[in-house]
Design a protein that fits this description.
alpha/beta, 11 strands, globular, disordered C terminus
Length: 242
Amino acid sequence: MESNALHELAPGLWTAVGQADAQIPKFLRKYDFSTRMTVIRLADGGLFLHSPVRLTDGLRAELDEIGAVRAIVAPNKAHHLFVGDYVAAYPEARLYGAVGLQEKRKDLVFFGLLGDDPRAEWRGELEQCRVRGAPMLNEVAFYHPATRTLILTDLAFNVPEGHVWGIPLVFKLMGGAGQFGPHRFVRWAIRDQKAARESLGFIMRWDFDRIIVAHGDILETGGRQKLRDAYGFILGAASRSR
């Protein structure tokens, strides 16, 4: 994964990777608990921050250089650890979270919850879909048409084989190394396959090529086929051959 700094993928599109070391016991910090934030500069110059990583002085300086933070987004019920730091640093920005996160983070004030309809700050520039059927996550996927980029959080991992990520035994049991797609926990979390199929079908109508994931490598091209194959167990064999 790239260093803990802004990395430009395309005009108006950046990512940054940070370590969750402040949130885990010291004896586990030798492992890679990195996660990725996506930053999009909107037409008005404001910044959309998806799944924020730990805010360092250097990262804040880089963000301030490219725009004003307008929207802070916690896209599922698991990716929220650092949003409070951004709310404190950017009090004029609006915080949005996945459905159910407001009960989990009562210390935060959410301007709104994420559904299928884009909020005013990014309407016309980003599309979104709340993936139903996995209430433990309630993840919202985003699509950036200008760069043909799909932005996921935990719905798919892309960790290379041999990469030491997290606790090795746990990750091995999760079955996520060396392949793009959902690990076993996400598969288990999908309790309503019909609802998930409808949501994924909606996402597959978007014309994306690149896929940004929170954990593992960015998939720069071929994303639609990769996602279709990864979720063939829900979408069905017919969709995999399209």
